[in-house]
Write a structure and sequence with these properties.
The protein has helices at 18-31, 56-70, 84-88, 95-112; strands spanning 4-6, 36-40, 73-78. It has 115 residues and is of the alpha/beta class.
Length: 115
């Protein structure tokens, strides 16, 4: 069994810039004694967040490198998702952008080592 926590516990009210908040969360998790975390990509996928910006691949690679330096595994993730109403609305404005962020979440999971 892996004792773990999620990166989202520090993302909601943090004053840290959104692009670096998850890095700060990883450092705090390590300091608290955790070696495994769930990467909450939903908290990184809103407009202006790293997953929703150009350069998201480089950000994911930096994230993996940082986690490896800390000795933390990201063994589980939480993807960007639709709410129920959005998932059934075929005329949703920006539906393609929603789907792109879901795809990016899946690709990032692979990049950071989530299996």
């Amino acid at each position: 069994m892996r004792l773990s926590t999620t990166t989202s516990i520090l993302s909601k009210k943090s004053e840290t810039p959104r692009k670096t908040a998850v890095f700060r969360a990883l450092a705090h998790c390590k300091k608290a004694g955790f070696s495994h975390v769930e990467l909450d990509l939903l908290a990184q996928a809103k407009e202006g967040d790293p997953l929703a910006l150009d350069g998201w691949e480089a950000w994911a690679d930096q994230l993996r490198s940082y986690a490896e330096q800390l000795g933390i595994s990201m063994y589980q993730g939480h993807s960007f998702v639709y709410r129920t109403k959005e998932s059934t609305d075929l005329k949703l404005p920006n539906r393609a952008w929603y789907e792109e962020r879901i795809v990016r979440s899946i690709l990032i999971a692979g990049r950071v080592g989530i299996q």
